[in-house]
Amino acid sequence: MDKRSTSTRLAGCLALGLLLSNNAAAQPGLPAAPQGRFLKPTALVGEPIDYELRYDHAPDLEVVFPDSLAAFVPFEYAGKTYFPTRTRNGRSLDRTIYHLRTFRLDSVQTLALPVVVLQGRDTLRVAPEPSRVRLLRTAPPQPASTALPELQQNLALVPVEPVFNYPYWLAGSMGMLLLLAGGATLFRRRLTRRYQAYKLRKNHGYFLAQFARHVERFDLSRSATNVERAVALWKNYLAGLENSELSSFTTREIVAYFENDVDVRKALSATDKVIYGNLQTDDAKEVDRAFQRLRGFAERRYASVTQ
What we know:
Blueprint: H1 2-26, E1 35-38, E2 42-43, E3 49-57, E4 62-64, E5 75-88, E6 91-102, E7 108-111, E8 115-119, E9 122-126, E10 131-135, H2 166-221, H3 224-242, H4 251-257, H5 262-276, H6 284-306
Parallel strand pairs: 2-10
Antiparallel strand pairs: 1-3, 3-6, 4-8, 5-6, 7-10, 8-9
């Protein structure tokens, strides 16, 4: 019995020695741990607090620091400040400051952000010692024996200042614009006709007034210039009424355009004699009849267009 126990103890010691030797042989190959610390020992709820993570390692070691998706519990990530790697005397230093906030009410809160070390196909997570920060409370602690005050019910209405309802006004404005656009599309042809009739009526009234003024001046002066101006006014008016180039037509072209109308042919023939010839005393009545024919023809053409 003693021999068996002795042999068992020797075997256990031998196995323990082998395990310690293997751990000792593997220990130098493990990367060193990073250093993490809060830059302030205390913090307020919701107040920004900085956490510095430093890692001193060999230059050939690939190191990945935590990003915004890492687990910062019980803190919330608010940003970070990254510093480029600095290598001196055969050692490299990586350093990052994380900007955090906490909304927990624990008196002491800890954090240990690990870094990832890439060694060939292996990935090692190396974490620093947990760093602690103490939460400062702004409200004085209440003793446990103190009872909470009773809540008092108040159902009195409080006047609320009216606020301009922008969504409803915008919706109403859009509806009005759509209604106006639909009405314009539906009644556009009718409105266009009315506007065109208004323009024609206005132009026709202007033509009759100006034409009567030229006739009156001709009656006073018997000048061929007034006859020429009256005929030019008549041509321009009919050119706009017919939407044509009548103002540049010759007398023969105008007569042909209006299909050899008797009033047009006789009136222009009489006015051409006055404009391009000498006015005789017997020709004054013929010019007056020519003016009447031109005015009457213009009124007939206006009536045919507006019907």
